[in-house]
Amino acid sequence: MSAADRNRPAPGHENAAKAAHLSVMCAEVVSALNPRAGEVYVDGTFGAGGYSAALLAAADCQVIGIDRDPTVQVHADRLSAAHPDRFRLLQGRFGDMAELLAGIGVDAVDGVALDIGVSSMQLDQAARGFSFQQDGPLDMRMGDTGETAADLVNSRDEAELADIIYLYGEERRSRAVARAIVAARTEQPITRTGELASIVARVVRSTPGIHPATRTFQALRIAVNDELGELRRGLVGAERLLRPEGRLAVVSFHSLEDRVIKRFLDRRSGKLTGGSRHMPVAETAPRAPSFRPLHKGAATAGDAEMAINPRARSAKLRAAVRTAAPAWPDDDMQEAA
């Protein structure tokens, strides 16, 4: 399921639109982090501030939010006004959290929360270009800099587009979609979400409950924002920052994201002792585990939350506790890909 589908209000739920703006599995994330007075926590994907607000309410702790989207400042201002000495927002990517926190003199924290993927607020704004259900500029940037989705679809060759759509969208008709995009852009540049959705719909068969453009839009969004690379960097950053017994809680919504998180935690906890089958690792001695799982496997949202918040239906929470072992080398994340 794409981020667009998981954020679409479900028929019959009058509270769905409101629920779409709630942080998914918020209670479970706070429980996993177990906030305590005097400790410091990072909300690496601040958004509307749901996790931050819940952490601040749970204990007399400090919270540092991070977000690359400048439009979230209004939510940060609200929390800053309510907790002037306990909350602050840093603008930037959560993959750069270690460097961002070093810039304010923080070199260790007690917990990190991450909610991976596009936010419902971004989907709801047609001008952001994330949604195929609302016509808008073909943008898809989570921040306000860098290449847009329009830049990508109008400049990449057919083979590269097909690879992006297949790898990040798991779209079986990726080659046909890429051909259709290249053919359409010879007539005029593709600049609107509605245009692209129509192009894809001509070559991808519709299935019940899933728009034909779902997987293509997901793939372009992931590519534009380097979401999987950002996730890997964020996990490594959290490993560097967390004190012994500090906690990491990551909520994801798609198998691509969850696979990266699972392999990272399995490897760091000693469950996986080698690289992937494509990249075996020869180690002279096993590295000491830098994490231990907080619970077996991934936790999922409860029935009550899923009933009012469609986004929770595909959510998975993985959490772990930092050990006293040194952080592993950065290049080890290539093995977790």
TrEMBL record:
Location within or outside the cell: Cytoplasm
Catalytic activity line of the entry: cytidine(1402) in 16S rRNA + S-adenosyl-L-methionine = N(4)-methylcytidine(1402) in 16S rRNA + S-adenosyl-L-homocysteine + H(+)
A Gene Ontology biological process term: methylation
Binding site for S-adenosyl-L-methionine: G49, G50, Y51, D67, F94, D115, Q122
Claim: Methyltransferase is one of the keywords in the record: yes
Function: Specifically methylates the N4 position of cytidine in position 1402 (C1402) of 16S rRNA.
Alphabetized HAMAP family for the sequence: 16SrRNA_methyltr_H
Family in the record: Belongs to the methyltransferase superfamily. RsmH family.
Protein name, per record: Ribosomal RNA small subunit methyltransferase H
Originating organism: Ferrovibrio xuzhouensis
